[in-house]
Specification:
Elements (H helix, E strand, L loop, with lengths): L1 H8 L7 E4 L6 H7 L8 E4 L5 E7 L2 E7 L5 E8 L2 H14 L1 E4 L2 E6 L2 E10 L2 E8 L2
């Protein structure tokens, strides 16, 4: 199911470029920032050819999806537990504009990001995309 989402999208306490998601960052910048072995960084191509960088940050698995120019266009954040999920919801409610119980907008000097909590039978994750 997650693989299908990557195809459809072709779209943490962290901070630089565009908040957690690193929207607009290059693949090289993300690889450099998370080069430490603790992040368990991996990269791959999806079945439809989209380039993805996956890494682990604390209680979260993160997947950055890139366009053909290797610029991050979407980020998926997968909390490892219900507690990690609730912690992010609380953080987003505190720091971002609440659009609905499962959607937020983050405004920054880098632009606007849309954040959406996706809940499926087999789990849940946050999808970050550009709001520009």
């Amino acid at each position: 199911m997650k693989q299908i989402l990557f195809v459809l999208l072709c779209w943490f306490g962290l901070q630089p470029a565009f908040g957690q998601a690193r929207l607009g960052s290059s693949a090289q910048d993300i690889r450099s920032e998370f080069s430490s072995p603790e992040y368990e960084l991996e990269s791959e191509y999806t079945e439809n050819g989209a380039y993805v960088i996956k890494l682990t940050i604390g209680r979260y698995s993160v997947a950055h999806l890139f366009n053909n120019d290797r610029i991050c266009v979407a980020t998926l954040v997968f909390p490892e537990s219900q507690g990690a999920l609730n912690a992010l919801v609380e953080q987003y409610n505190d720091q971002y504009v609440i659009v609905s119980p499962t959607e937020w907008k983050m405004y920054s000097k880098g632009g606007i990001a849309n954040v959406r909590l996706i809940i499926e039978e087999d789990g849940y994750y946050f999808a970050w995309t550009s709001g520009d």
